[in-house]
Amino acid sequence: MDGPSRLSPTSSAWSLWEEGKGLELVDSSLGYPISMAEVLRCIEIALLCVQDRPEDRPEMAAVVLMLGGDRAPSPHPKQPEFVSARERSEDSSSSKGPTCTVNDVTLSAVHGR
Question: Which is deepest, 61, 91, 96, 111, by most CB within 10 Å?
Fold first, then answer.
């Protein structure tokens, strides 16, 4: 990686949180007082929700409990692998031409009489 300018928002948020600088993600227009502990808790929960592997993400019922303060976030969020993989693929595919995909979709509409 060539510095913060190459980081995606998710990767940047994870890096700041991991370095103990998660509060740098807070928009100053929110004003104060805000609960710094609550902000850090929300960041941690958000990072858990964007884990690369679905089995590492909490279920929505658990997220609701965590946001309500009834349950502590666990486990520790992992570095987003999909961000790292994308950054690696950008480096390796920069000399290749543009890539595209074709997605076919069939829609059926059923109308009653």
Answer: 91
